[in-house]
Amino acid sequence: MKMSKLFRKTLVAIVILFGVVANASALLSAWILYTDLTDEYETKGRAIAGSIAEASVEILLNRDASTVQAMIDKFLDIEGVGYVYVLDNEGRIISHTFVPGIPDEVQMAPIDPSGFTVTDVALPGMGGFIQVSAPILAGVAGTVCVGMDKNIIHAKIRAAVIQQELLMLFMLAVAVVVFFMLIKGISRPLMELSEYARKLRAHDFSARIIITSDDEVGLLAATMNSMADELSDLVSGLERAVAASTRELQGALAHMRAIMDNMADGLLVTDAHGRITNFNPPLVHMFGLEGADLTGKDARQLFSGAMAELPEAARSQTAILTAEVRLGGGRVGKAAASAIHAHAHGPSGPDAAADGDAATWLGTVILVRDITSEKEVDRMKTEFISTVSHELRTPLTSVLGFAKIIRKKFVEDILPRLDATDNKSRRAAGQIGDNLGIIVSEGERLTELVNDVLDIAKMESGKIEWDLQPVTIAEVIERSVTATSALIEQKGLSLNLDISLGLPQFLGDRDRLIQVMLNLISNAVKFTAAGGVTIRAFIEGEMIRVGVSDTGPGISENDQQIIFEKFKQAGDTLTEKPKGTGLGLPICRQIVDRHGGRIWVESAPGQGSVFWFTLPVRGASRQGADRPVQEPAFRDRLQPLPAGKNQGTILVVDDEPPVRLFLEQLLADEGFRVLSASDGPQAIEMAKAHRPDLITMDLMMPGMDGTTTIRHLRADPATRDIPVVVISALPAREREQAGGDACMVKPISESALIETIVSLLRGAGKDTRPCMVLKRNGAESTNPLLMICPGKVQHTTREELWKRLEEGFSGTVFIPGSISHEMDLTRLSAHPNIHVVIFAE
Q: What is the rounded average pLDDT of the residues 614-638?
């Protein structure tokens, strides 16, 4: 029969145990036996030595050595006695039992003549002895020495140990036989149980084990048979469930694969090493990789630019990264990358991962969308806004211009001729004046709306230019309060400031942030009938937090969700008159978002409102930093006319008849001879034929545009020196690059236009408005156009310009063409009583 592991282990344990016990008991017995025999031999030696000493007194005194020798020889027959010798009182050996002679080691052993002495002596060739010496007659007659043989002690100990070990071996043999008989009845069923367990592990549930004993082994066998039946049922059900789940998973995978393959967007999945693990056909088509197997390839080798960097860049980001990527065929795509992390869940479950459990980066998933059409739509949107702004500004120029002309003629020519006693006519005249005022006011409000629409459109398209410089929020608040103080006082409201001291500088666009504060303060004043406005600013972590609160009617929770959307206002705009364009807060949100902050409102009906926004202390990044634009070179063509010459001839060029008619009437009233042309070729022909003193030029015209027309005029020696004033609704950069001597934006200010024309033709007039001229790189300009304001010119920096405007400056602002793209001309033109003129250098 094969020996079971249990028996082998138990047998080894018994042998080791018996070996330890046998050796330990043998050693203990040997030690006890050695101690007892040593004591016994020492006692026996004392007795023999004492007996010889007592019997040898007379013999030694008579000097009878032979008798002593005969006496001591008899003691050698006693067990354990190895030798005996007798010394006289002088230490000489009288008799001994050594053959042939006494060893030197014996003579060197110490002896005390006054009493018994016990000493261990080792003799060469004889072994060890216990030497006992006894004095004869107190040492007077000599000493008797008896050596007890220790070899006999050692022989007895060996014999005893061997007998004990044999006994232990016999006992071990008996124990093994008994144990074998006992274990035999246990190991066989256990081996059967082990074999049965191996069959169960191999999923052989049909096997049975037959053990009929009533002990624990029998109970275990019955339990295992029952467990086998249950496991058979469970495994069968599990196999069916696995098969069903496998089919379902295969179907889901096939469905998912079909979705991925038919997505409009490209899909790319990479592992932690940047190798591609999954992709779909749209991605292959987008990048022109048809026929290539991308699986397992390094994404950095297949793609370039941002697409190659996204897998690694998304590793440490929790947010989704986006970037524009170049697709095949010159198309443009937008890629969104997100890292794939596996969280090490603790005992609390998967939710614990959100609390900071360690996460392992498994790879990156990237979605790529072809946005070529969107980019084209964005370009068309920009062009549409530019076109619409022109189409809106052009009629606004006519409406406002004619309204102001009518109001002027009505006041100067008609009102004085009315009969003062005719109350009906006076009332009608008053209504007409009021109506004209409404027309002008609403026209200016419509102009502001157009400016706001253009402003937010440029912000959303990313085409607006940001001037990021170190700035403090205290300075921004101070300038905003200065600009709105008159409005607050006019309404009788109080103003409270709570600005923390020592607020740090940050990187921001001062003018845009002032625009945010002006919007929030003006809104607070607009909607507050009584009470006051409070402005707070303090540091909060790494952010500067600013709030504008009022005591107005408050904002409902539903309205709080929409007021930051374009053209959305609080309240019912169908039953209540809107207060504003609904673009102020969306513009504020665009500006704050661009600085890396957040803007929100806290309010409740009847409890006022608090508008908060935050700005990071570290400031916004300098993305999209301004790039210098190469400006065209202009020659100094401005030659002021002699003061005595007639007013002169002006050629008005515009494709819109109402605008031409307005300019004709405006300039004719100032004493100019006015000619008009509706397109570029006609303007060139009339300029050559009539040699006008000045030309006003629209840019957006059918056929030949204004820029091309100016280029033709400059190329002809006969017309190259004629001053040209560009009047257009196109963006500032297009106006300043057109090649004119001055630029004005529609709708124009009549007084600013007349002053500009007079300056170009005749020099400064007598009644001119105060002027500010923006410095270019710190240098002051000496352009002849500035002759309209001699003695009143203030050369200023950009920061000083905005500060003066907030302090209420009223007049004309001249901006050199080479730096006009750095200014927010739309916002500048929106200031009341401000005329903006862009001049060539």
A: 44
Query: What residues are paired with 551 via a beta bridge?
Result: none
Distance CA 633, CA 818 (A): 9
Three-state secondary-structure class, residue 612: strand
**What angle in degrees, to the nearest 10, is found between the helix axes of 216-261 and 150-201?**
50
* 345 vs 362: CA distance, rounded Å: 16
**CA-based end-to-end distance of the chain:** 116
Contacts of 200 (CB under 8 A, 6+ apart): 207, 224, 227, 228, 231
Nearest-angstrom CA–CA distance, 246 and 108: 101
Distance CA 815, CA 786 (A): 11
Measured CA to CA, the distance from residue 145 to residue 91 in angstroms comes to 12
Q: How far apart are CA 471 and CA 558, in angstroms?
A: 35
How far is CA 773 from each of CA 512, 814, 836, 837, rounded to the nearest angstrom?
21, 5, 10, 10
**pLDDT tens digits for 694-747?**
999 988 888 888 889 998 998 888 888 888 998 876 665 666 677 788 888 777
Nearest to 727 by CA among 385, 386, 441, 390: 390
Distances (CA, A) of 211 to 185, 200, 217, 314, 679: 12, 17, 8, 65, 115
d(CA 96, CA 589): 129
**Is there a contact between 787 and 764 (Cβ–Cβ < 8 Å)?**
yes
For residue 72, the surrounding DSSP H or E stretch is helix 65-74
What proportions of the chain, in percent to the nearest 5, are helix, strand and coil? 50, 20, 30
Q: What are 747-761's pLDDT values in tens digits?
A: 777 777 888 888 777
Q: How far apart are CA 532 and CA 207, in angstroms?
A: 93
Beta bridge partners of 811: 834
Q: At what angle do helices 510-526 and 584-594 cross, to 10 degrees?
A: 150
For residue 481, give every residue at least 6 positions away whose Cβ sits within 8 Å of its Cβ, in sequence order, or none: 495, 497, 521, 535
Alpha-carbon gap, residue 429 to 423, rounded angstroms: 10
Q: What are phi and psi of 791, to 5 degrees?
A: 80, -10
Angle in degrees, CA 623, 628, 629, rounded to 5: 120
CA 639 to each of CA 546, 619, 643, 726, 741: distance values in angstroms, whole numbers, following the listed order: 53, 48, 12, 18, 12
Q: Alpha-carbon distance 682 to 488, whole Å?
A: 53
Which residues are 751's β-sheet partners? none
Helix axes 423-461, 372-409, angle to 10 degrees: 160
Q: How many angstroms separate the CA atoms of 516 and 613, rounded?
A: 10
H or E segment and range at residue 177? helix 150-201
Give me the pLDDT at residue 167, please.
86
Token readout for 393 is 């500004």
Contact by Cβ (8 Å): 330, 375: no
How much is the pTM?
0.41
Residue pair 299/273 in contact (Cβ under 8 Å)? The answer is no
- CA angle, 296 then 300 then 305, to 5°: 145
Asked if residues 208 and 225 have their Cβ atoms less than 8 Å apart, the reply is yes
- Per-residue model confidence (pLDDT) at position 314: 81
The answer to whether the CB of 283 falls within 8 A of the CB of 268 is: yes
Q: Which two tokens stand for residue 562?
A: 């929409």
CA-to-CA separations, 326 to 286, 336, 554, in angstroms, rounded: 9, 14, 49
Give the pairing of strands 332-343 and 359-370: antiparallel
Q: How far apart are CA 699 and CA 676, in angstroms?
A: 15
How many beta carbons lie within 10 A of that of residue 709, not counting itself?
28
Tokens representing 283 are 């991605």
Strand partners, 340: 363
The tokens of 200 are what? 């169960």
The answer to whether the beta carbons of residues 746 and 393 sit under 8 Å apart is: yes
